[in-house]
């Protein structure tokens, strides 16, 4: 069987023989830590005075926005790039992304000297596209939404023998992003709860394997009510695509749940909840106003969730600031008076 012919996938996406769907274990995060610390700085864990005052909890932001790509995913990108088998280095990597996964893969491509192609949907976040190109990737706008761009990239991978970097069915990405949870454990051993945005679920899976499984924290995932495919997969126990994903927070707007991450979440995540789309944009505006931190809608879903919880007073809560790459246009809309 060729390495470049798709094989049956338990979900609606395409996987290739080199995609190992064995769920990562906590030990894999420690191994990834040895890689990640060579390429990326440890990110700060900083108390949010405004959210703590508002909720009565001790709320800490894990500042993943301070990474060089401005989002947590690059931890996974460098882990995968470091381990990339020789056979793929010349042909290169291909991925579909609304932006931050693409920046992560593009960053890894530059770091390890591997060519990178990223498929983005029509009407992409222009600042994210510019960043991917700055990291040296070829960016191709194709398809009406993320899932159409994904199908195009999967086809190209099969035709041209490229290494398709799935946004979730990649143990190296999950283990890599899980290193954020290990850093949280080192900085703050007694965390009661981690509240993490969920798109494909790699970030939340990483916290489950570390702050959750090792540190004993409760890990709660959050989706927008306007893009709840993973929420349904988690609660209903299937991998059926949702009919639509209409959130404006492109970092969490996947329509299709993914086998590897949903498996980890069903095993280890304590709960997955949704927040209304409007609460996300209130979160962007208020975190900017009160903390002077620019966060993406995807990241603000977790802020909205913490604000909606009536049982967090007295707890120590960690909210990962998963990304800062909000488009200028969405920033304008978020701060404009209604
Ligand atoms: C990708 C992304 C998420 C969601 O992460 P998943 O691992 O897909 O669940 C959240 N926030 C930002 C900023 C992202 O880029």
UniProtKB/TrEMBL annotation:
* CDD domains associated with the record: Thr-dehyd
Q: InterPro entries per the record?
A: Ser/Thr_Dehydratase (IPR050147), TrpB-like_PALP (IPR001926), TrpB-like_PALP_sf (IPR036052)
Entry GO MF terms: L-serine ammonia-lyase activity; threonine deaminase activity
Alphabetized Pfam families for the sequence: PALP
Names of required cofactors? pyridoxal 5'-phosphate
Superkingdom per UniProt = Archaea
Any idea where the Tryptophan synthase beta chain-like PALP domain is?
A: 41-323
Q: In its UniProt record, which GO terms are filed under biological process?
A: isoleucine biosynthetic process; L-serine catabolic process; L-threonine catabolic process
Q: Which UniProt keywords apply?
A: Lyase, Pyridoxal phosphate
Q: Where is this region: Disordered?
A: 1-28
Regarding protein family, the annotation reads: Belongs to the serine/threonine dehydratase family.
Q: What is this protein called?
A: Threonine dehydratase
Q: Which organism is it from?
A: Halorubrum aquaticum
């Amino acid at each position: 069987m060729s390495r470049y012919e798709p094989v049956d996938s338990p979900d609606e996406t395409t996987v290739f023989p080199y995609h190992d769907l064995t769920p990562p274990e906590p030990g894999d995060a420690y191994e990834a830590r040895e890689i990640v610390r060579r390429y990326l700085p440890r990110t700060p864990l900083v108390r949010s005075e405004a959210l703590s005052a508002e909720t009565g909890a001790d709320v800490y932001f894990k500042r993943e926005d301070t990474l060089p790509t401005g989002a947590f995913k690059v931890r996974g990108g460098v882990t995968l790039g470091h381990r990339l088998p020789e056979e793929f280095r010349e042909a290169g990597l291909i991925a579909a992304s609304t932006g931050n996964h693409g920046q992560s893969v593009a960053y890894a491509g530059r770091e390890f000297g591997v060519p990178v192609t990223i498929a983005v949907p029509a009407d992409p976040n222009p600042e994210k596209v510019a960043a991917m190109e700055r990291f040296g990737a070829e960016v191709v706008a194709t398809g009406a939404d993320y899932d159409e761009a994904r199908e195009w990239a999967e086809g190209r991978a099969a035709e041209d023998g490229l290494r398709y970097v799935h946004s979730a069915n990649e143990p190296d990405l999950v283990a890599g992003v899980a290193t954020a949870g290990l850093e949280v454990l080192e900085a703050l051993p007694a965390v009661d709860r981690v509240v993490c945005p969920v798109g494909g679920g790699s970030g939340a899976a990483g916290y489950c394997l570390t702050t959750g499984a090792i540190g004993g924290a409760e890990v709660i995932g959050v989706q927008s009510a306007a893009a709840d495919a993973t929420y349904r997969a988690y609660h209903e126990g299937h991998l059926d695509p949702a009919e639509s994903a209409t959130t404006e927070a492109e970092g969490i707007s996947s329509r299709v749940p993914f086998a590897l991450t949903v498996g980890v979440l069903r095993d280890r995540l304590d709960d997955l909840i949704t927040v209304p789309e409007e609460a996300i944009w209130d979160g962007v505006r208020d975190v900017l106003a009160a903390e002077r931190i620019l966060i993406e809608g995807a990241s603000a879903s977790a802020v909205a969730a913490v604000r909606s919880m009536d049982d967090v007073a007295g707890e120590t809560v960690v909210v990962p600031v998963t990304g800062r790459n909000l488009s200028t246009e969405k920033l304008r809309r978020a701060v404009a008076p209604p």
